[in-house]
Structure formats: structure tokens, C-alpha cells
Amino acid sequence: MYTTTLLISEADLRNFTDVNKSVDSEFINNAIRVSGDYYLQNTLGTKLYRKIIDLVNTNSIADPYKKLLEDYCQDYLLYCAYYETLEALYIRPRNNGLLRATGGENSESADFEMFNIKRQSVKNKMDFYNTKLTQYLIEEEVLFPELNQNNKLYENYPDYSEKYRNPFVTSRMGFAEEAKSRGIKIYDSRYKQFPQ
Length: 196
Description:
mainly alpha; three-stranded antiparallel β-sheet; 3 strands; globular
């Protein structure tokens, strides 16, 4: 489904980042839309993401969804959109390759080193806010039943695997199941209150 609801505004992106006032709205709004669909939906899962969009569309958002959106999702989404905006602004595909716009009709070859440094800085902030959002969802899972309702192949299930997997690495498959069967609790060192 094509998402047209923006969970942060263009003004938010301009006010809380260094995106210049002269940047075309089309770049910003598309980055916000893509960021919601691509990044936020991956963290929330499709059902919870669609629930928040529906509540925003009907102007009926209330706690706990309002708190989730305003205190956690919007900060994360701001840096996701900024991350996506940088690519659209700095490097544009043209007939003669990827070029960096320098004003008007002028352009030059892109300096990927500077671009990557800036983008990595934004990604670090994006990851910070995603961690906060993920930790909140883990702690308050009972408030959001939609987290566990995704059951179609085309629906994203909330993905915490990369950051929140068990710290033990083993080449033997089934290690966790065997440890559990022997009464050994497996913990993520950051979340000891959540034995696996």
C-alpha cells in the first residue's frame, strides 16, 4: 500500500536539522514518506505502523499510541528522513553519472568521502533513536498487541534481531534450545530481565 500520511512534517525536518530552507519540498516529503515505510515499519512491524497511520488519519490518536509516536517514533523518523534526504540532495543521477549539484545548471563529480562522513554522522543519531524506540517497545510490549499480529508474508514483523540477539556465537545449531532444555537461561547482556 502506498503511504501518503507523513508522521513528521517538512517543517520538523528543516527546524531540527541543518537542511537548508531553499531545499525543494518534494525531496523532503518523499524522504519522510519513504523513511516511514522503509525504516519505521521495519521497527514497528506492519500492523502497528498501519495502526498509527490510521489513528493519525482519523485524528483519533491517544495514549499509548500518541506517546509512542511523539516520544519515540518521531525522533527516529526525523533522522531517517534526514538520512534519506542527504542522498537525494547531494547526489543526483544524470545521463553522465552521479553528480553533485553546485547551483543552477552546474554540477560536478560527487565527493563521496565527505558525503559518507556526513551521512554516517546522521546514521549514528538515527541508530540512537531506533535503539530507544526498540527498548521502549520491548519494555511496553503489552501496550501494543499489534506487535505480534503480523502473520502474512507481505507484513513486516518487528525486527530487533540485529541489535538484540544473544551475545553468544556458536557454530553449532540448536545451542540455545539445548541450553534451555538443560535449564541454562540465555540472556542478552543488555536485557537480563528478558531470558530467552
